[in-house]
Amino acid sequence: MEKKISKTYQAAIYLRLSKEDGDVDEGAKLVSNSISNQKALIMDFLKSHAEIKEYSIYVDDGYSGVSFDRPDFQRMLDDIRKGVVNCVIVKDLSRFGRNYIEAGRYIEKIFPMLGVRFIAVTDGFDSIGKDNSSDLIVPFKNLINDAYSRDISIKIRSNLEMKRKRGEYIGAFLTYGYLKSEEDKNKIVVDSYAAEVVKDIFRMKISGMGQQAIADKLNAQGILSPLAYKSSIGIRLKTSFGTGNSAGWNYVSVTRVLKNEIYTGTLIQGKHTTPNYKIKARVDKPEEEWVRVGDNHEAIITPKDFALVQELLKTDTRCSPAEEKVYPLAGKIFCGDCMEGMVRKTVPSGGRKYVYYVCSGNKKQKGSCSPHSISEKELMDAVLEAARFQISTVLGIGEALSVLDSAGWKDTGIGKYEERIRLETERKAKTEGRKLGLYEDFKDGILTKQEYVQMKQEYDRKLEESENALRSYRNELKLLKEDKGSRQEWIKEFKKYENLTALDRNVAAILIRQVRVYEGKRIEVIFNFEEELDKYSSVLGGTGSAGHTEGMVV
Fold it and tell me: Does pTM top 0.70 for this prediction?
């Protein structure tokens, strides 16, 4: 017999749907059909419940049931606290929420404490007329709903991870310089206009300009910032590049472009995660766990230029307000005695300005180093002379190697290392065979335990030597087979500057790794491509020390 209810109720009809429920897709209407179906079912329920005199409708369309931080759910709670609502009606318990603990807290504690009636229509649950069986059914159904959310979350995470590994772009925001492909929404294509701006930014950086100077130049040229540009072509997305459509280029936005590896054709995703399906706060993942897919899309910047810019960013120093470009050797000059940076100083005297570099070590810690200095002109002249000598040396080695190539040196070298690998492999196999026989000799009493241990250690040592030798020979063989293209690349860098007359930031960035100034004005210049130069100097019978060029400035 149905229990007669004398009290009247002002109800909140709560409707919810999310993408994880499988009824919402990107083309869904603002209020989905499933929301309409929930409403229709509850309205039909109200026809047989005259005690519910009034109702208001609360809709969260597109919100997960795991979190209760939903706009209309919170509005409904406010109305409950105000006394406007004293009854909550949902289609079923899963529409109310899929968090087992939180849903139970509302149904079993909060609503009864506030005198709120709770009804889940299709689950047949009504807190007014519930019996002992309901006390068991509701927590059980909430637990099932919670488990469903966990299962969906795991499936979504797994699916997204597979997409990342396939190189599919799943980001919500597009990187400046790219657009989504019209044929495949998970692929990105180059935006020709923005890509040219990206190229200009990298060119300006390599030429020696600082990020703020680049930003100022872009703004002066009327180049729209990433956010403003996206807005201008109809992409209504938020971005961290600026806070409004009027936001221009600045130091941060230029730096982000310069540091983004996506421009080399490499897609990096999965930098952040959430602890679990109940906690939505994002946490950073360690870099080794990022998903990196190379040659994934059309590159805007060459890997070589990108790597060069990363080196520049590491050694960058700020420009003075009156300067647009960074000084050629900025961030590369160190004291050779204490390895602290040399600081650039300008001293006005007699209507002229004198520029020099002084060791900062003594200033940081008195007595740690001598306060030696060198004039900028002396330093630049010495480094220029060293650079010219290095360029001449490299080009000379390049010519000598070309002669050797024509004489079949490369083929001879390949054959030599292939033979070494064959012989070492045979030697290793014999050692392994002898080691395997040791135990049998020990078991048969031919060897004592001490002899067995000593001989086993000796064979282990020989096997390790063979493995190291094979690794070295294989590396050398690989280098020889790949040699011509890679050698041409680094020699080509020096070839560009064979008629060098002055140092600029571009030359310094490409050729020079570090400049060390010792007390007494002795200067040591350490160049890039040092390993390659050592290798080929050795091949030609040189000392392998050409990578360090020293000069004495008097």
Answer: no
